[in-house]
Amino acid sequence: MGHASKRLYSTATKLAVSTSHLKRFPPKEAIRAANSSKDSPLFDPESWAALQPPPPSALSAFAHRIGLGTVVTSPDVVRRVCTHKSFLTLHSKYYPSSPVPPTNANLATLGNALMGLFASEYIHASYPHLPTRVLKAAVSAHVGPLTCASVAQEMGAVPLLRWHRQPTTPTSPALLRSDALASIPRAMTALIYHERSLISARKFVQSFFLSREIDLRNMIKFRDPKRALTETVAKFNRDRPKSRLLKETGRYSNSPIFVVGIYSGADKLGEGFGSSLKMAEYRAAEDSLHRLYLTRTPSHILQLPSSTFPPAKGPIYQTGVESPYTPGDLGEAEIMYASGGRSSILAPKRPSFEEEEQREDDV
Question: How far is the CA of 299 from the CAs of 131, 205, 214, 303, in angstroms?
Answer without folding.
Answer: 20, 17, 16, 8
